[in-house]
Design goal:
The protein is an alpha/beta fold and 343 residues long. Helix content is 31%, strand content 19%. It has an 11-stranded mixed sheet with strand order 1-8-2-3-7-4-6-5-9-10-11, sandwiched between helices. It has a 5-stranded parallel sheet with strand order 14-13-15-12-16, sandwiched between helices. Helix 9 runs parallel beside helix 10.
């Protein structure tokens, strides 16, 4: 199958919508990352998504809608706290886990009786959903185990020959996937941090809870609230280490480790901030240290670059855990198997 990449026009959106209605898969840009979209009401489309991604069938898909009115038929209930989060943060980079209605096939929810719903802010994504005339199930558009794609080119790298069309809306503004919030109970729990931060949720609800696995690896045999937590994600081939602490000590520790590893024959790269001086050592920029949203927007492409360049070791500067920093550290932490060294 030939995979075409087309810019967003009325015509390409109509074409994408028709493909989805016909049971095919389409690369869908969103404000977070590119998604691999299919008809969310079709078990067949869901199976195709799992196959194209190489994804384990027990990891459920997020269902995307274009407006609030499309939500009631998809869920059995909307708890009060969920309603307030919707009003505050949709359209936007937030997924709410809600009790699933019967029209969502169990293939989409991976057998769970809940479903993740998301109303994206991306006009392209909403245009595609409207053109399809059905809600769109879409996981991130990477092959399983690879970093999520933040450009159409990244998605093509992973999906070339597997799907007919990728819609190109340029680089994603947020760059990390949506916040996944379990909103089935009275106190919503953040299962995956993202653009809607714990601080923002707390402002609306006066309380917030963050699942303990956001910043810690799983213990063997442990039961998780979100199947995605089980899988090793975002893992570059390079051995990845994160350094956390006072900036000048972090820079010194990274330079020391770099020189030692390079002398031992490793190909080393630093994921570091523009303000910091690493001499002429190889650095992939995470943007400005004063703007954690830069690191969010660049992290996945930096992880892809590591593999492309054949690096065998990556030394990363940590980001503070407040705001979107928690999402960055969750993804970076998983890429590093939570090898975070305090200096
Ligand atoms: O930003 C995003 O959320 C992107 C774009 C395309 O919208 N999508 C995305 O999907 O990141 P995916 O499938 O790569 O990640 C969805 C995560 C997985 O970790 C999954 O386990 C979790 O959400 N999830 C989905 N449905 C769930 C449910 N019913 N209960 C618990 N966790 C769920
Ligand atoms: Mg994903």
């Amino acid at each position: 199958m030939k995979t075409e990449v087309k810019p967003i026009t009325e015509q390409s959106l109509a074409e994408g919508g028709a493909l989805i209605r016909a049971g095919e898969l389409v690369g869908m840009p969103t404000e977070t990352v590119y998604g691999l979209g299919g008809n969310a009401l079709s078990a067949d489309a869901a199976l195709r998504i799992f196959e194209a991604k190489g994804r384990p069938a027990d990891n459920p898909l997020i269902v995307h809608v274009s407006c609030m009115e499309e939500i009631p038929p998809l869920v059995r209930a909307i708890p009060k706290a969920a309603k307030r989060l919707m009003e505050a943060f949709w359209p936007g980079p937030m997924t709410l886990i809600l009790p699933k209605a019967d029209c969502i096939p169990s293939e989409v929810s991976a057998g769970l009786d809940t479903v993740g719903i998301r109303l994206p802010s991306s006009a392209a994504a909403r245009g595609l959903i409207r053109a399809a005339g059905v809600p769109i199930a879409a996981p991130s558009g990477n092959r399983s185990g690879r970093p999520s794609p933040t450009t159409a080119q990244h998605m093509l790298e992973d999906m070339d020959g597997r799907i007919p069309l990728i819609l190109d809306d340029g680089p994603c503004a947020v760059g990390v996937e949506s916040s996944v919030i379990d909103a089935t109970g009275e106190t919503p729990v953040i299962l995956r941090p993202g653009g809607i931060t714990p601080e923002m949720v707390e402002q609306v609800l006066g309380r917030v809870s963050v699942d303990e696995h956001v910043m810690s690896p799983l213990r063997e045999g442990e039961i998780v609230r979100s199947p995605g937590m089980k899988y090793r994600h975002y893992a570059p081939k390079a051995k990845t280490i994160i350094y956390e602490g006072d900036a000048s000590r972090v820079v010194a520790a990274i330079c020391r480790q770099y020189d030692e590893a390079a002398a031992a024959g490793e190909r080393v790269a630093i994921l570091g901030f523009d303000e910091h001086d690493f001499g002429n050592r190889t650095r992939i920029s995470l943007g400005s240290a004063s703007r954690p949203q830069d690191a969010a927007a660049r992290l996945f492409s930096a992880l892809r670059e590591l593999d492309e360049r054949g690096e065998t070791m990556a030394l990363c500067e940590a980001v503070g855990l407040s705001g979107i920093g928690l999402a960055v550290m969750n993804r970076m932490g998983r890429a590093a198997a939570f090898d975070i060294r305090q200096v």
